[in-house]
Amino acid sequence: MYNDFFKKEIYLKKIDSTNNYLKLTSFEDNFIIYTFNQTKGRGRRNREWLDFKNKNLAISFLIRSTIDPIWLICTASLSLIDVLNSLNIKNSWIKWPNDIYINDKKLSGILAESVWSDKKIEKVIIGIGININNNIKDLIKLNNATSIYIETGKKQNLKTIYKGFKRELSKWLIELIENKNFNLIRNKWKELSLISSKKIKWINGDNIIYGLINDIKDDGTLVIKTIDDNLYEVKSGDVLLDEVN
Ligand code: BTN
Fold first, then answer.
1. Ligand 1 test: best mutation among 11, 20, 128, 139, most atoms within 8 Å of CB?
2. What's the 124 CA to ligand 1 centre distance in angstroms?
3. At what angle do helices 182-193 and 69-86 cross, to 10 degrees?
4. Ligand 1: residues whose CB is within 6 Å?
5. Between these two residues, 77 and 220, which has the higher pLDDT value?
């Protein structure tokens, strides 16, 4: 038996959104829920997250901590990459800040939401959606999406993937919250995020920066170096791989 960080877990047969469920229900700390049938998944920036019954895994966990949510996003990303490595899937990487890619295709997205009370973060909910048994036809409407099945040609047992993810996540959360081992996590995260040879385009509303990823700081800030050697620090927005620039 491994050291389980979570005090409680719930499997839901069907739910609109696992993040909504944790947000609206009053649960104690260190709680994890999951479903194979999410009907109204939400993505970042009010986008929808598309799920297919028994093909996608939707997981949300709740942490009551003052830690910057970026670290929790980071532990979720590292945990999924551990699971992918155990399935012998190579070339997975973290597209700052919230996506897991395999080569140039998105496999998984993370949505972090904070619930505030008295001007303080009361709890943080991290939701992760993973495309597992989807075929090419399922994902055709989505730009650049992939699944574990598409990458390996093998169907997976969703429960087994969930269990593997939870085990890895427990390990990383113990490193983060109990051992405060920020360095270990940051270094691993940087190793998997710094695709320094790739040119990127950062977009936030009308602001656009072209350059190379230079660093990720302790508070999750991304440092971009432009062609004229200027350094820009950004904390939100989207990073796209820039094929033309
Ligand atoms: C994104 O790529 O924009 C983030 C997608 C996050 C989807 C997950 S699935 C589990 C949790 N519940 C939701 O409604 N959204 C997140």
1. 128
2. 14
3. 60
4. 17-19, 41-44, 47, 49, 58, 60, 99, 109-111, 127-129
5. 77
Q: Name the pTM for this structure.
A: 0.89
Which residue is closest in CA terms to ligand 1's atom 16?
127
To the nearest 10 degrees (0 to 180), the angle between helices 158-173 and 69-86 is 130
| Cβ pair 6, 32 in contact under 8 A | yes
Share of the chain above pLDDT 70, in %: 95
Q: For each of the domains in the chain, give its residue range(s) and CATH number, in order of start.
A: 8-192 (3.30.930.10), 195-241 (2.30.30.100)
Q: Are 219 and 68 in contact (CB under 8 A)?
A: yes
Reply yes or no on whether the pLDDT at 245 is more than 50: no
What distance in angstroms lies between residue 226's CA and the mean position of ligand 1's atoms? 31
Give the pLDDT of residue 208: 92
Answer whether residue 232 shows pLDDT above 80.
yes
Pocket test for ligand 1, best of 25, 47, 49, 80 (most atoms within 8 A of CB): 49
